[in-house]
Amino acid sequence: MNISLFRLYLLRALYALLAVAEGFIQIRLFLHHGHWTQATGVAHCFLLALASLSIVGVRYPLKMLPLLIYEILWKSIWLVGIALPLWLANQVDADTRKGFFEIGPVIVLIPFIPWRYVFQNYIAKPGDRWTRHAPVTSERVPAALE
Questions:
Q1: What torsion, rounded to 10 degrees, do the Cα atoms 115, 13, 65, 69 define?
Q2: How many CB atoms lie within 10 A of CB 51?
Q3: What is the spatial distance between Cα 104 and Cα 78, in angstroms, rounded to a whole number?
Q4: Which of 14, 10, 75, 17 is nearest to 46 (CA)?
Q5: Which of 54, 67, 76, 78 lies most in the core, judged by the most C-beta atoms within 10 Å?
């Protein structure tokens, strides 16, 4: 499948934005954090790793699509599983409200993902083999190439 050059540059811009924006926030917090709880430290280290891997996405925008999909998935799960029930129960506190405004903008990523490419390359395409030996074919592969 051929992805337009414009789409590739758009994906690169998304990765660069994620790397710079999230990276700036997380580096600053990481260097001056004081005392974090275990969960807070894990979350900030995860986000710093996400920002760092986004740099790779600038060079390989299609190969790193799982990173953007993961970003969309975890934030969508939080919005539907945490924020929405609290909002429906009229129990949104200041932390949830802050989290919503930090996490909610993920929806802008959804239309930029080349979903047909994702389906063809990550769902419909056969997976990597599970055994040591390649499947038997009618053609004989030279031993030097095995």
A1: -70
A2: 20
A3: 9
A4: 75
A5: 54
